[in-house]
Amino acid sequence: MIDLHTHTNKSDGTDSPRELVNKAIAQGLTILGLTDHDTTSGWQEAAQTLRANLGLALGSEISCLTTDGISVHMLGLLFDGNHKGMQEMLEETRDGRMPRMRKMIEKMQMAGIDISIEDVENARPEGATLGRPHLADALVIKGIINSREEAFNGMLNNDSEFYVSHAAPTPAETIAMIRSAGGVAVIAHPFASLRGKTLTAQDFEGLVAAGLNGIEVDHRDQNPDERNMLRTIAKELDLVITGASDYHGNGKLNALAEFHTDPAQWERLESQADQRRVVWA
């Protein structure tokens, strides 16, 4: 099995990179994509844990914004982790997360919700990329909501009165940087309408022109009709079709490898990187 989209406690997951690798081995995965938000800080620990027949496809899920303000997530896989431009882009995106968090908290406080940046920092694991899930965890700890799932279905949804967009590169800029760093770009859950506004079918042509390699089609946040539409788009534009869990440990309901990528599709995707970078024990 091949799962190309997972998270650890280096961003908003609950498993350490070591724990994630151990679970992937126990479950019989053959390729695991490690894609923490806007960071590569979990790569070394994950690689050091490798054994058996598991290969590690190192990457990152990069936060993007379209010119009209739609939030897009781009999976960069198999890129050179030492590429200066890529690391600078990831750092700039991480730096933009704190002002955004403060604005969201300010909105909540103005609505009478008892939450502070200190509460969020106390809920965030040391060194983790700051994100809305940590605000959700803080709200759970304070007894304001019951779970992350409840938070993202309500208070932290993209259409919520408390939502604040963030400074981020455009999808095309992100794709160009991933490809410049030798990697491959797969757009994550692009039709996940429950999260808020999504791209249209027409938007993909511009992304292909920028160098997009694939579309994450099979994902729990996309209903069957959305998956069918994406599968058609991918075939028409000759893009790789992937499936993945978007696993976050206990942070979400998503189960490791609940959706996965066909080996032939993975082989095609891997061949489009500038060199083979899958890490093996």
Strand content: 5-15%
CATH superfamily of the largest domain, called what?
A: Metal-dependent hydrolases
- Structurally, how many domains make up the residues? 2
**If you compute it from the alpha carbons, what radius of gyration comes out, rounded to the nearest whole angstrom?**
18 Å
Helicity level:
25-40%
Question: Order of strands across the biggest sheet?
Answer: 1-2-3-4-5-6-7
If you had to describe this structure to a student in words, what would you say it looks like?
- The chain is α/β, with parallel strands linked by helices and 281 residues long.
- It has two domains: 2-95 and 166-271, Metal-dependent hydrolases (TIM Barrel, Alpha-Beta Barrel), CATH 3.20.20.140; 97-153, DNA polymerase, domain 1, CATH 1.10.150.
- The protein is built from eleven helices and seven strands.
- Helix 5 packs across helix 6.
